């Protein structure tokens, strides 16, 4: 069994195993002609169920053959240009190389004595990101597992900085289309049920700042505490960007912590042409960035950044075995003092390899391309009488629904769109997402693949319209 331990004596075994795995995946990627096979749960589940985990196959080739059967064949492939669904990006090769290196070396980013250069590399990337945001000389941050954790940590700091002895009086303001992790964070932070005040959005799905001002005033008048305003720079459903400068003004006026959830919009930090869309982000007290959404990084890769490094102390606990106080005096750097996690992956390495290979401009160029694609997709949809489109994209998302000719019943239109999404998924020809707008079912393209073309968009729209028509045909048959 020791032959499976990665060490000085097994370097050759490691090289062979990993190469065999890489070759399988490379062959798979080269021949994947659809984002999904359309496999049904009922077909896949028994294949996984019947595997006896207490009876190992022992041989790498056999294990990879089995993996082909239970996972690789039917995986959802984000690299395919017709995967248009959620906020998943195709990944860049330097980052995948970073992933392989970090798994093998297996540094843990909590302390210097478990990571050495890893700690310094992470710190340099945090400084790079805070400089791109413009958070100023006292800024800091830490890598996290994702936007959910980044938002949670930011709101933890905001809660502690609010210095209230009554959690029930704290209020967080976020737009009605902000990410659900804001509400989840409020719950985890022990805030009351009414802690998150939902602010309406305008026609472009941006937070209405007049409504925010009104709610902040009301909060003050009621003797409550405006703990934080969460501005979203790239909403999950629409990619809309809240008016950051106006929100910053209101935060300053009411003494509220300004958190910018740029999990999606952070790609603009590297943009060559659209950086101005997130102007005002530099006034935030904290920012969430998900490199695994718009920096083309493999999951996970995210960070929470703060204007004032000292606020990170709210996540600091000392343990004699790990990070005793004397280490601070000895100026030995560690990241665990800033993190909600203890043992932590060296995700930063992926971004490091990316920036050292492609440069920030390389990433920005790719993100600009998907923003341009979305603008072209909007033109296509707006000119197509079969579809109704919700909002002109600020990033790379299109939300629309098929309105089949001669159908006026909104519930029937809902059903046709739900059917079309499901049928498309089952066919594996493309994967699209869905959401609700004004209580009605819509479809969503999140465009994060620069390889997707307007021809792909047109083809998928035709497929959707075809499935919707088929649904209506069948529903007519059922009625007869
Ligand atoms: C705006 C926004 N914030 C936060 C998150 C949560 O990020 P994660 O899935 O990385 O936890 C998402 C995820 O889609 C998001 O769109």
UniProtKB/TrEMBL annotation:
Kindly list the GO molecular function terms attached to this UniProt entry. Answer: aromatic-L-amino-acid decarboxylase activity; lysine decarboxylase activity; pyridoxal phosphate binding
Enzyme class, top EC level, equals lyase
Q: Name one GO biological process term.
A: carboxylic acid metabolic process
- A Pfam family of the record is Pyridoxal_deC
| Annotated keywords | Decarboxylase, Lyase, Pyridoxal phosphate
Cofactor annotation:
pyridoxal 5'-phosphate
List the SUPFAM superfamilies hit by this protein, alphabetically: PLP-dependent transferases
User: Looking at the record's lineage, which domain of life comes first?
Assistant: Bacteria
Q: Which InterPro entries is this protein grouped with?
A: Aromatic_deC, PyrdxlP-dep_de-COase, PyrdxlP-dep_Trfase, PyrdxlP-dep_Trfase_major, PyrdxlP-dep_Trfase_small
Which EC number(s) does UniProt give?
A: 4.1.1.18
Sites where N6-(pyridoxal phosphate)lysine occurs are at: 293
Got a GO cellular component term for this one?
cytoplasm
Family of this protein: Belongs to the group II decarboxylase family.
Put simply, this protein is called Lysine decarboxylase DesA
Organism the protein comes from? Streptomyces luteolifulvus
